[in-house]
Amino acid sequence: MLGLVAFSGQVPMLIATPLGGVLADRFSKRNILFWTEVVELAVAITLSIVAWQQLFSPSILIVASLILGISGAIEMPSRQAFINEIIHDRSMLSNAIALNSLTFNVARLLGPAIAGFTLAVFNESLCFMINSFSYFASIYTLLSIHPMKVDVTVRISSIKDGMDYITHHPIVRCLILSVAVTSIGVSPFMTFMPVYAKTVFHGGPDLLGILLGSSGMGALAASLYLANKKTTSNLKYVIPISCICGGFAALTFSYNQFLSLALPLLFVSGAAFITVVTSCNILLQEIVPQDLRGKVMALYTMSFIGMLPVGGLVYGSVAEHLGSVKPVFIIAGFISIFFGIGLLRTFPAIVSEA
């Protein structure tokens, strides 16, 4: 059921994100972000009421996840491409993208910790209500931003143009593939952490918050590292090495029984994952032309978030068949390691030739 709920919330990234990319290149990105935030606010309020009335069921969670997934699929390409419209100094673009990742990961770090504590002390309804209030801050911020005017003479392109662009540019193709493989590699951590918290480490919601918070700390550290980088020249080595490190973390985590070891492994996994996806984002934003940025970032989003439900569903089936979630971490680990080794042998040369 965990895999199914995760799948229903993230699979729209594989279906609706191309539409989000087209919309991002044709309409105001700020307006798109505003209205998707309003939709997500309505879902959060609804879930808080459902939790308060004790009306939860798997079908309600799946429908809510689908709505949030569709909204996120339309939102993400605009959010990624919007950075280019609010950064006036182009030399600061890579730092701005890393800082955007930093804010995401601060929320990812604090959110599970606050939710775990709130859930343990109070109830689910208050968790969803706090989430509802957070959207007002986001909506206010969007209304306060005044982006640069974009060239309206840019030709209108389709998602096929984005696919053609990726096909004919090896460096862009490698970046998108790296994000997809990394997302598949980290998927077991996203999907099965509640299982580990309960059955392996014998804890509850508070321990789950600590485990997810440890992964968030790693992501936060990686974001800080990238935000302070002065140059992007060594990212061609950072990306494949991070894939390999994330793979070894998954292998070690698979049969680990000790909480003291699980926390640093989750730290490494979170750091490796964010290092790859943020580094690829930085390089893509530097390479891709304005008229294709929304479409390419839509494909990036599909690889980043859209592959997570695929991994969750496949790994969930494997875990069900084998009667254990531990083997899926081994599979994910080997996928990341082998891909990272292959990327280390080819990617630096591709970047140098670009």
Write a concise synopsis of the structure shown.
This protein is an all-alpha fold and 354 residues long. Helices cover 84% and strands 0% of the residues.
Number of helices: 14
The number of strands is 0
Fourth CATH level, the homologous superfamily: MFS general substrate transporter like domains
Q: What would you say the CATH architecture is?
A: Up-down Bundle
Protein described:
By secondary structure, the protein is mainly alpha-helical. The protein has one domain: MFS general substrate transporter like domains (Growth Hormone, Chain: A). 84% of the residues lie in helices and 0% in strands. The protein is built from 14 helices and no strands. Helix 4 (29-52) packs antiparallel against helix 5, helix 6 (93-121) runs antiparallel to helix 10 and helix 9 (170-200) packs parallel to helix 11 (235-254). The longest helix has 33 residues, at 290-322.
